[in-house]
Structure formats: structure tokens, C-alpha cells
Amino acid sequence: MDSPSNDSSLDTLLALGTLRAQAEKVLGEPVAHLPLPGLSLVEQRQVWERALAFEQGEEKTLLEHLSSEKGFTLPAQDDGPVADFLWSLLLALGDLRIFFDYTDHLTDEALYDLLCREVLPKRVLLPAPGGCLQFDMDDFPTDSQPDPSLLHLQYYADEAFRHQVAEDFPECPLPPVQPLKADRDAFLPSP
Question: Is 113 exposed, middle or buried (0-12, 13-18, 19+ CB in 10 A)?
Fold first, then answer.
């Protein structure tokens, strides 16, 4: 643990005490000091700031975070090709450390629609420094596959995995393998 040998360490220790007092006020009860082994004082302060923000309900929708943190607004769909504003959106979310995987089963239009309908309205706290939020887009139902548990089997599972699922669940027929509709996952921002 850092020793309070300089002004910045002392300032951080004072800030930790202040954050703890604020947390106690919000919670209405004493908060035990939790030493966080392996974390510097600055990292401990970040943990307390995030915990306090959570307790104070400072979460916003992802769209609100995009607007306040990046000045990003969604264009009208008739403002140009969907692929252009889809990539602008994915890159802006990547800058906020919000990442996506398993998107290749969706066309650009379907992914953009799914992001706008299911992901951007989600209320979240932004990830702590060094952290991230990861969305696996095969967890969301689509028009062509309302059961998201089958999407991975349809588009991403290799033959060994499909064989194992068929063995483990013989009563459930496997969906047919479908070709991917895009080749974007390898190019998406990532942690």
C-alpha cells in the first residue's frame, strides 16, 4: 500500500475519508473501512468513487453517457449509409470501454437497430478505469431467431461444440448452421 509520504498521497487519504463519510450518509449506517489489498491509494479512491456513484444512483443510459462524455448523438437513419453511423457508434462506445462481440450474425441494419432498441437504453455506470463492459450480441433475440440460446449454435459454434450439445441434450434438435452475415467482429474495438 502507498505510504502517505507526499501531498498527493495525503490528499488521496483525505479524499478516501470523505468518500467513506459520504457513503455512510447515503447508506444511513457506518461503513467498515475495507482495505483493498493490492490496490494503490488512487485505485482505492476510484473504487470508493464508483461505489458511491452506484449508491447515489448516478447511472445513466448508454445513450446519455455517449452524449455527456463524447458529445455523440444518434443521426437520423436517413442521414446516410447505416454502416457509417454504426461504426461511429461502435467506436464511440469503444472509447467509453464498452465492447461488443458476436455481431457477425447481424446485418449492419439489424445490429444498429438492436443497439438502439436493446443496448443504448440500458442504465449503467461507466466502467472503472481499466475495466470494461462487454455485450455478447448473440444473447439478444433477433427476428429470425427469437431464442437467443440457439444463436451461438446456429452461427458461431464449431462442430465439436455442436456435437457435444447434441449428446448432452438429445431431446433438443440443433438448429441448422447458418452463414455469417458480416465480417466485423475482428475489427471491433476490444479491451
Answer: middle
d(CA 127, CA 147): 29
Local confidence band at 10 (pLDDT 50, 70, 90 cut-offs): confident
Contact 61, 122 (CB under 8 A): yes
Q: Residue 36 carries which DSSP code?
A: -
pLDDT in tens, 99-130: 999 999 999 999 999 999 999 999 888 777 67
Using CB atoms within 10 Å of the CB of residue 44, give its burial: 0 to 12 exposed, 13 to 18 middle, 19+ buried: buried
CA nearest neighbour of 130 among 54, 39, 32, 37? 39
- Residue listed under C-alpha cell 445490429: 111
The pTM score is 0.71
pLDDT digits (tens, 9 = 90+) for 54-69: 666 567 899 998 998 8
Annotated domain spans of the chain: 7-55, 60-187
